[in-house]
Amino acid sequence: MFLGQYEHSIDVKGRMAVPAKFRSQLDEGAVISKGMGTCLSVYTLARWEEKSQELTEGKTTEDLRDFERRIYPSASEEKIDGQGRLVLPARLRAYARLSNEVTVVGVRDHVEIWDRAVWQEYQERLDAQGDGIPF
Amino acid sequence: MFLGQYEHSIDVKGRMAVPAKFRSQLDEGAVISKGMGTCLSVYTLARWEEKSQELTEGKTTEDLRDFERRIYPSASEEKIDGQGRLVLPARLRAYARLSNEVTVVGVRDHVEIWDRAVWQEYQERLDAQGDGIPF
DNA sequence: GGAGAAGTGGGGAATTGTGGGGAAGTTGAT
DNA sequence: ATCAACTTCCCCACAATTCCCCACTTCTCC
Asked: Do the bridges between strand A101-107 and strand B30-34 make them parallel or antiparallel, or are there none, so unpaired?
């Protein structure tokens, strides 16, 4: 399970350190894809396969074709380097409007990468409309 | 089951001794999250998974997304160290406004960590408005 | 009183996050 | 094909933080 939130940076080579608490879960292959909203999502290889399987079930062949052409080309399988970093492809960085300062968050079955300012604004909006944490 | 209340301290490294009576229940993984009110909640890994599962059921996909992005990033899985202590992440300490002196209370299925002064005030207020304990 | 457990403090080793050099591989123009 | 420019990958380096262990004091329980 991915929990917690970490403030990291992207260096000039497009690399970002994976929070140490997430590494062991991602060191056998990570799939980076466009996230829901202005962010990127990172899945373990296994979870990505499960999830894409679920999402393509029960679609008509036409919808399925469009869907597959939207999802798979935009994703990228990356390996964690010797220093525990992932390379974030330029195309994906642009999609999520990532500056050098990002917030990496664990969301149960996947990790999300947000531009730090965008994340902060999003959280403030949630806090304002929310009823507090139900724990 | 978690019962009782204990006055402990947080050291300069952010560590807090877990009351001995709680240790055996938490030594296989503890999840620390924002609590309801000005406190932190600590769950066993198993109970956390049950609870978060319950809370996400029956939500629309949009609500679910926002909800998950509020709950999971704010939590943190921690292990108890060799001396029976937990590290309380700085972000969570700030959320619950914890000074060095805290009160650790058992609340049936979870443990709560309160700043000692805040807890005391809260208890006095409850006693003042209540009719005593029904035992 | 003695033995063990509990709560606290701190030193040193290991890990983490970040930056950067340089070899190897790509690309595109000549 | 040749070469330069660029990208990608694999190291090494370093400061800061975290983790692991040892030590000390207090408390509890026979």
From this structure: unpaired
Among partner residues B51, B55, B76, which is closest to A4 by beta-carbon distance? B76
| Cβ separation B73–A107 shorter than 8 A | yes
CA of A29 to C1' of C27 (A): 28
- Pick the residue from chain B with its C-alpha nearest to A114: B69
CA–CA gap between residue A114 and residue A2 (Å, rounded):
15
- Residue B56: Cβ-neighbour burial (10 angstroms; 0-12, 13-18, 19+): middle
- Which of A51-87 are b and which e, b meaning 16 or more Cβ less than 10 Å from the residue's Cβ? bbeeeeeeeeeeeeeeeeeeeeeebbebebeeebbbb
- How many angstroms separate the CA of A69 from the C1' of C30? 38
Evaluate if pTM is beyond 0.90. Answer: yes
Per-residue pLDDT tens digits for A40-68: 999 999 999 999 999 888 888 888 999 99
Which residues neighbour A111 within 8 Å (Cβ) at sequence distance 6 or greater? A2, A18, A22, A26, A41, A42, A43, A104, A105
**Cβ(B34)–Cβ(B94) under 8 Å?**
no
pLDDT band at B131 (very low <50, low <70, confident <90, very high): confident
